[in-house]
Amino acid sequence: MLARERTSVSGRQRKVIVWTATLTLVVSLILATPLGAPAHDTPADVTVQMFVKPEGRTLRVLLRVPLTAMQDINFPTRGPGYLEIDEADEELREGAVLWIAEPLQLFENGDRLPFPEITAIKVSIPSDPSFREYDTALAHVFSPLLSSVDPDMASVCPDEDDPEFDPECTVADLVWTQAMLDVLFEYPIQSAASDFSIRPGLERLASRVQVVLRFMPPTGVVRAFQFMGDPGLVPLDPGWLQAAWRFVVDGFFHILDGTDHLLFLLCLVIPFRKFGALFPIITAFTVAHSVTLIASAYGFAPGGLWFPPFVETVIAASIVYMALENIVGANVRRRWAITFGFGLVHGFGFSFALRESLQFAGDHLLTSLLSFNVGVELGQLLVLALCVPALELLFRFAVAERMGTIILSAIVAHTSWHWMAERWAIFSQYQIQWPALSVSFFVSLLGWLMVALVVGALGWLAFGRLWNPAANTSTSASTEE
Asked: pTM surpassing 0.70?
């Protein structure tokens, strides 16, 4: 009887094994069987060239996109991948609609424009130079289409430097992965003088998408933009309020994302957790980085490749110094001056991060810079509002104040020391080209020294006298006598 039970159990196990193996085989065959044409791989890097120009009651958007970005579109080919251009019109339009027109959003005075019309579409060779200017690009997209003729009957097109070069030469063997898609969209608009904005939505074309956009308003002042990925909603000719709000937001999140700046603020907060004592220190830091940020934006900063790694190294060194000063004992009466000096360096660091965003300022450069500083100040206030109570609770219930100051400062010093060493290794690879000792150099140097003296004097009057408890006490005592 036991033998029968063992036999029965063994039989059920064999059935389970047979059914499992069969099901696994069927699923594997289904997954291995192609359900359609294989999809194209997502390209790694794609550059999109774009012109946006309002003309009368029409907004023209002229683009050039690599054909490889049109994923999941099976273009007709022959041989080892040569594009059948004469038979590809339907697929080209499908790709232009699916991958460009649908995600592309344009707005007039805040209202989204309706779906565009494809006015012209054309395949171009990768070496075609027409997209250097709007007029040549527009003429090119309306020129006769390339065609795929019988390869046995076609001759090779001459190069651009050949005297017999013909831009309309028939291309027989154009590999589809090397082809460019030129397309002209037209949107109906109310007026060419309206405020236009764009949300490109082209980041899904590749793993890394760079959009080079030129906006050509009726004023004739061309605005150039260059951004990676998704830049969000971009006003093409921003007003001062639009620019101010964008840069306030940028400054706020930049200070929250900057670990080195946050550690510098933490070093300022640890020994002085009273807002009255912190106010002159934080204000000195804000004024200092505002000066160098504005100066850098207007071109009053070294332009050598060595300068950014030098600034990043000094920023790390400033954190090390502040942390070590906390350990040995900080003096509130002179910390504002040290913070002011380091704030000048941090301002250059802010300028490096802001450099790519200034293209969104339009005609409001100074407004945008000041707005960025306002955003940074708001971010600093948020950090202070969180750090001061947290440190108070830590030193009251967890660890003694002096011991906690030493421990936290030592951790910050250790981290920033490694940063400083890594950044110094990068900086040491550059060769500094010192400016020629000319009259203009000494005049410029003298101007900077005068500015530094004026700023330092104003800082001493503001911070050293007005917020110096000892000076105020002696002044009041002499008055009483």
From this structure: no
CA angle 294, 299, 302 (to 5 degrees): 105
Q: Indicate if the alpha-carbon torsion angle 105, 109, 115, 117 is positive or negative.
A: negative
Burial class (CB within 10 angstroms; exposed 0-12, middle 13-18, buried 19+) of 200: buried
Note whether 277 and 332 are within 8 A (CB).
Answer: yes
357-411 pLDDT, tens digit per residue, is 888 888 888 899 999 999 998 998 898 888 888 888 888 888 888 898 899 999 9
The DSSP H or E segment spanning 296 is helix 275-297
Please report which helix (H) or strand (E) contains residue 62, including its range: strand 58-66
| Per-domain boundaries in the chain | 45-237, 242-433, 435-472
As separate numbers, helices (DSSP H) first and strands (DSSP E) second, the chain gives 12, 12
Residues 6+ apart with CB under 8 A from 411: none
Nearest to 416 by CA among 288, 309, 322: 322
Cα–Cα–Cα angle for 354, 360, 363, rounded to 5 degrees: 110
Task: Compute how many other C-beta atoms are within 10 angstroms of the C-beta atom of residue 448.
Answer: 11
Report d(CA 175, CA 148) in Å as an integer.
Answer: 11
**Which residues, other chains included, contact 329 with Cβ-Cβ below 8 Å and sequence gap of 6+?**
none
CB neighbours (10 Å) of residue 67? 24
155 pLDDT above the threshold of 50: no
Q: What are phi and psi of 188, to 5 degrees?
A: -75, 135
HEC assignment per residue over 114-143: CCCEEEEEEEECCCCCHHHCHHHHHHHHCC
